[in-house]
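Input/output pair, single chain:
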Amino acid sequence: MHPTLPHLIPSDFPALRRDALQTLQVNLGYRCNQRCLHCHVNAGPHRTEMMAREWIELIPDVLKARNIQTLDLTGGAPELHEDFRWLVQAATAQGVHVIDRCNLTILSEAGQEDLAAFLAQHHVEVVASLPCYAIKNVDQQRGDGVFDKSIAGLQTLNALGYGVKGSGLILNLVYNPQGASLPPNQQQLEAAYKRELLAHFGIVFHQLYALANMPIQRFGSTLISQDQFHDYVTLLKSNHQTDNLAQVMCRSLVSVDWQGNLYDCDFNQQLGLSMTHSAPRHLKELLEHCVTDHPITIANHCYGCTAGQGSSCGGAL
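Output:
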């Protein structure tokens, strides 16, 4: 796989500083039951990197010490971590809102038959990947049979009340473009998703997040192989919107890798771009030190968050 960081630095992206920390985003490991082309984590079934119990047990203490209200769990497939359920229970017992970034097909994996019910029991917000509402596009990006399993997963979640008005069980979907292009208008695409999924499968959900593909890891390497990397970064830079800088996720979120190291965002984590030397560098340091007002480490991939309508873990900005 081609390294992408050398193509992203030096950078002329505007300098940024952190606001108050609101979200702790924890990557529990890179093992996944899928292997998607757009995956910026390069996750897959054969990855072995998983967070140690030592750092898992530290997370509730960090949430309390820094008064963090949201725990965002990602991977890989975070549910494959043997301590995933322990961590969810520990965080929700403290009144912390937990987000599970779910690929939907995990719900039908052996040993995960009760996963959806567990998530509902603890009122975990589900942010589910579904690159399109058409089978051809999804299977092309994520593998044969993924669309049917994803639809079955959504129907299971709906049956438990997820996405249903008044249930309190939040279900949001995630869209990624298939190639080197910006996502379309999020509101218009959300309307199309809701119309098609309801009409054909009886599925309902709350919001659609339209996310830009980042020119890093597997997707970035593919761009380099196809001689499209420079053009894609140029596309991101030429569509930069200064207004989006106020809302980029790195200002209120800290990303934690499977070894407990801290990063300004999940993308910096995958590039190995550590937080500045003045900031805490490991999960255990967050027990004593805050990150507010520290400078944010940047490179040209940051334009993926500010291009066009903007892109963050919560969709368009």
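The chain has a mean pLDDT of 92. The longest strand covers residues 97-102.
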